[in-house]
Amino acid sequence: MLGNSFTEFNAQVKPQEASCITCHAYAQRDANGNTPGGGAPKGDAKIGTPSILTGHKSLDFSWFLGFGVPTQACQDINAGPIFSNNDAKTKCPAVCAVALRTWKGQWTTTEPGVQSVCGCCL
């Protein structure tokens, strides 16, 4: 696959030191929606298999464009039992962060004393 040589030239990327797929795979964000600076992190591959940064999820490139792309802005995620709003305030932010989403204050008990879900959003 050929890159956009005009873009690479203007970014002062040397020939054979960039890959569209690798670069786009670095489009990542953390649970708070923060994205790292553009391009490969210092010391990481500019071509080849990029690494996923700790606590980040790749958002841009996928060989399976229909898979792994969020289909809903919000979704319910199992959180174990939640007994009150105060309990939800301590459990749901962490549950949503694992899914690289944020908690907007919504939760529901699906099975009393056994299971609740947190409303986690992109």
Your description of this structure?
Strand 4 and strand 5 (115-121) form a beta hairpin. The model has no long low-confidence stretch (mean pLDDT 75). The protein is an alpha+beta fold and 122 residues long. The chain has three helices and five strands, in the order H-H-E-E-E-H-E-E. The chain folds into two domains: 1-69, no CATH class; 74-121, Dna Ligase, domain 1 (2-Layer Sandwich). Strands 3-5-4 form a three-stranded antiparallel sheet. The relative contact order is 0.15. It is rod-shaped, with a radius of gyration of 19 Å.
The major pleated sheet works out as: 3 strands, antiparallel
Mean pLDDT: 75
Q: What fraction of residues sit in β-strands?
A: 15-25%
Question: What is the β-strand count?
Answer: 5
Judged by helices, strands and strand pairing, the structural class is: alpha+beta
- List the secondary-structure elements in sequence, H or E: HHEEEHEE
User: Numbering strands along the chain, what is their spatial order in the largest sheet?
Assistant: 3-5-4
Count of domain modules? 2
Contiguous helical run count: 3
Q: Which residues form runs of ≥5 with pLDDT under 50?
A: none
- Amount of helix: 10-25%
- Span from first to last CA? 31 Å
